[in-house]
Structure formats: structure tokens, C-alpha cells
Amino acid sequence: MGWEKLPGSLCNTVVPLEQAEHQWLVLAADGQWTQQLHGLLLGDASLAARRDFISGFTALHWAAKNGNCDMVTNIIRAAEKGGARVNVDARSHGGYTALHLADNLVCLFLGTFCSEEYQLENLL
């Protein structure tokens, strides 16, 4: 099936991903911090803000969804080191921020110690 068979409005919005962007999104969706991910971010700090075109997730969304606190921290630090600011309030197409997806990782984003009681209350 070629592009010509897609509805007109969709044809005008389809934009192929650059190789680095594609690799970044695929690796980020795995929710694991790797040397490859780090290398891509060092090469282009703006990748931290790139979104999955289907879900609207950024790498922070994937890291939070997978409960990977180290990945969240590493993305923010590496991007800022490269001169890019990471928007932790970026919303997915469904309206969710990374914090919404973090389930019980409020401590990570607020930088506070959460009591066991608080964690148990928020699991429900």
C-alpha cells in the first residue's frame, strides 16, 4: 500500500522520522537507560523532547511508566548538559504527564521522602 492510498488529510501530516529520532523513540519506549540512548542524547539534546507520534509520550513518559528513576534523572541531566531544557509537564495525546504515569514515583519528582503509609494509600 502506497502513501497515495491514505486519506488526503493524513497524507499531508505524515512525516518520516530521521534515523536518530527513530532509534531514540524505539530505545526510549523500552524504558531502560542504555549507552546507546545516552550517546544519542549527547549527539542531539533536543531528542529528550521528541514524542512518540502514536501516544505522544516523551522518553520521560516511558521511563516513568517503567518505573525507571535513573533513566528520568539521566535524561534530564544529559539534556540540560547539552543545552536543552526538558519539560516535565509535557502531556501525551491522552493528556498525561510523566508524573501521571509514574504510579507510585511521586517521591522521585517531588524530591521528598514518602512514608510507607502514603505509598500504601496511593496504591488504591
TrEMBL record:
ANK repeats lie at residues 55-91. Coiled coil: none annotated. Pfam families: Ank_2. Gene3D superfamilies: Ankyrin repeat-containing domain. Keywords: ANK repeat, Repeat. Belongs to the SOWAH family. This is SWAHC protein.
